[in-house]
Amino acid sequence: MKINQLTKVSQKEYANIVPGFAIAALISAIPLLINSVAPIVGLIKSSFSVSGEIKDKSNSYKWDNSKNVDKSGTNNLNKYISF
């Protein structure tokens, strides 16, 4: 079909097209949002873990705080209230 053969869309039909276009744009943006949130969630999870490893293309970072957690766990003071 050539450009000069295209017909102009009426206002009534245009009103039906616009919401569909917005929905299609939002649906296509969902993977982008998930891909941007996933690294942030991983960073938060790794910051609260006792031991782990983070790798990327050029670096690797390992940590193991299990010994520190065990030491601090034995020094807990239990307080009991009796009536």
Helices and strands in order:
Layout: H1 11-48, E1 51-55, E2 60-64, H2 66-74
Antiparallel strand pairs: 1-2
Q: What features would you describe in this structure?
A:
Keywords: Membrane, Transmembrane, Transmembrane helix. By secondary structure, this protein is α+β, with helices and mostly antiparallel strands. It has one domain (about 5-75). Helices cover about 55% and strands about 10% of the residues. It has two helices and two strands; from the N terminus they run H-E-E-H. Strands 1-2 form a two-stranded antiparallel sheet. Strand 1 (about 50-55) and strand 2 form a beta hairpin. The radius of gyration is 28 Å and the shape is elongated. The model has no long low-confidence stretch (mean pLDDT about 80).
Key structural traits:
alpha+beta, 83 residues, two-stranded antiparallel sheet
Order of helices and strands: HEEH
Quote the distance from N terminus to C terminus: 90 Å
The geometry reads as elongated
Number of strands: 2
Helix content: 55-70%
Query: Taking strands numbered 1, 2, ... along the chain, how are they ordered across the largest sheet?
Result: 1-2
Mean pLDDT: 80
Tally of helical segments: 2
- Number of discrete domains: 1
Instruction: Calculate Rg over CA atoms.
Output: 28 Å
Structural class: alpha+beta
Q: What proportion strand? A: 5-15%
Low-confidence stretches: none
Outline the biggest β-sheet.
2 strands, antiparallel
